[in-house]
Amino acid sequence: MRAASVESVNAVLPSALRSFDPRQVPVVGIDAGLPAVAPDQFSARALRARFAAPPAWTPELRREPRMTDRAPAQAAVLVPIVMRDEPAVLLTERTAHLSTHSGQVAFPGGRVDPEDANIAAAALREAWEEVGLSAEYIEVLGCLPTYTTVTSFIVTPVVALVRPDFELTINPYEVAEAFEVPLAHLMNPANHRRHALVGDDLKSREWFSMPYQDGPHERYVWGATAGMLRNLYRFLSA
To answer: Do the Cβ atoms of 106 and 91 come closer than 8 Å?
Structure first.
């Protein structure tokens, strides 16, 4: 999300939320008993068909506990599925200097502007502004249901196919790094860890994490990003 829009809510967030480290919260369950999405569902043809004729399904996660009094705001994120031999999801790591959500893994995205023609246009614009991913490489498939964050952003995930011959230009103010995680890893519930936090000034809260070991780096996908990916899993496995 655009740094200005995120930082504007910093003053009304609980101090514990700003310094919160999700890695320190114990894992209370892993969903290894659920089936992984079959690899043949990751082809461009299969993904296009799924969004063209969606199955009956129910999103598992829609709203996080509200932790701010700010007015709700519409936002959009791009869920970019890069169509390599092994399809992967393009994600970003936010820069460490940002006053909220610094260092977290996220989709490219941010607040919907009045000038945006629609939700998809907002997601494409943000992807261009954050990581220089040009719309000429992107084929929008459709949207998942909204997901409301603790900071009252009502986020619409826009799922898209991305041709793999793109080159990125990272906005260093907002993004420390862009990287890819295999779609098969994210769509396998054996990699979906459940966490629960009870009490303190963060209130009771549950969330998923989907850590991925990328060489020497642990890509720690959690919170809203993991929640939207969990909904994508439910959509593709329905």
So the answer is: yes
Architecture of 29-181+193-237 per CATH? Answer: Alpha-Beta Complex (3.90)
Instruction: Give the end-to-end CA distance of the chain in Å, rounded to a whole number.
Output: 30
State how far Cα 227 lies from the chain centre.
Answer: 7
Tokens of 182: 């295999």
> Does this model's pTM top 0.85?
yes
Q: What are phi and psi of 110, to 5 degrees?
A: 175, -165
Where is 129: in which H helix or E strand? Answer: helix 119-131
| Token reading at 203 | 């209130």
pLDDT 10s digits, 75-120: 999 999 999 999 999 999 988 644 444 458 999 999 999 999 999 9
Alpha carbon distance 155, 201 (integer Å):
24
Determine the Cα–Cα distance for residues 61 and 138; give it in Å rounded to an integer. Answer: 26
Instruction: Determine the number of helices (DSSP H) and then strands (DSSP E) in the chain.
Output: 6, 13
Q: Which two tokens stand for residue 125?
A: 């614009």
Give the integer Cα–Cα distance in Å for 40 and 20. Answer: 38
Do residues 101 and 94 lie in contact, with contact meaning Cβ atoms separated by under 8 Å? Answer: yes
